[in-house]
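Quick one: structure tokens for this chain, please?
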Amino acid sequence: MKILKKLSSRNFNLVFVFILLSILLIKIPTGFENQIDKNAIRAKGEIISVNNSQIFDAGLIKTGDQTVTVKILEGRFKDASVQAQNHLLGQMDRDKIFKPGEKVFTVLTLNEDKEIIYASAREHYRIDLEFLLFLLFALLLTGFGGFTGLKALVSFVFSGLVIWKILIPMLLKGYDPIFTTFAITSLLCGAIIFLVAGINRKGLTAFAGSFAGVLISCIMALYFTSKFHIHGAIMPFAETLLYSGFAHLNLTKIYTGAVFIACSGAVMDLAMDVSASMEEIKKKKPDISAKELVKSGLSVGKTVTGTMTTTLLLAYSGGYITLLMAFMAQGIHLSTTFNLVYVSAEILKTLAGSFGLVTVAPFTAIAGGFIFSFKSEKKENLPVKHSVNAVEDLF
């Protein structure tokens, strides 16, 4: 009976809705499917043999071509052996040398008769390992978190699909990057928080605080991006995007949107921490006043903020550790380092996001003081027999 009751609960229904929405998002076309080469087949293959005679060493890099024999492991050409080319560009971040026995991502180009006319060994095949890693993550999350872990997993998948299926296509189609990114970020904040916490006072408090924090980060990013004179072309593959037929895009606005969408996860974490703590305090001491509850929320927020403020610093600096190492190794002065556009862009990301993190705690505490105290006030004005159900219906 307990299991049936749980399955029929509002939380389970909400999870089911988000699962259906995720499936729907998978089916929805992005509008850019026609960009995919229809005369190409992508398949997993295995390296049978290699020919490195046309590879030339040029110091730290290699140039030339590696010819490999690949056995196709899936699809209509399964078990077929083809000669594929691996072009070396002289770029260590993009070049790879294959060895016999390794799995490879192969692209087969077909003619009008659907016969293979050319094969290219693009990358080491990683999709199966990525799926295995995700599966282990899902098992760990649901095994440790139970039903809450399942909700977190659904929100994780849903967020990824919204970014890939909605945000990115809208940006490519020329929608305003600031408004679009802020709207999608707010949508994700609400979806994730209400899915994990439920549609209740805790969820409402966390959403109010996280929305305010993202808004502050958005304002900071809008103002200081222009003051820092940062162009969005500093983002990876930005120029490639422009030369792919999207020269009309405003990369600077896209960069600005990326600033506050990047910090939204940490903002939600902090808002949820404060909200959950305030809910627990309210449960243990139902007669606590709104003022005292706000003070408790602020106290929790101060403690959590002390560690959360370094979250973005560690995340962003980790991505640019080799850049910082190169500057130190060459003896470049700190003033030069901090003025470089790449470093300045990361500083802006870190501080604008951290500004939202610091402000989200008081916003959440103030919102929680009102929201959690609202029930007690309503209880006093309702008949005792129906007060609890009536108030719960409000949330």
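Residues 38-125 form a domain with the OB fold (Dihydrolipoamide Acetyltransferase, E2P) fold (CATH 2.40.50).
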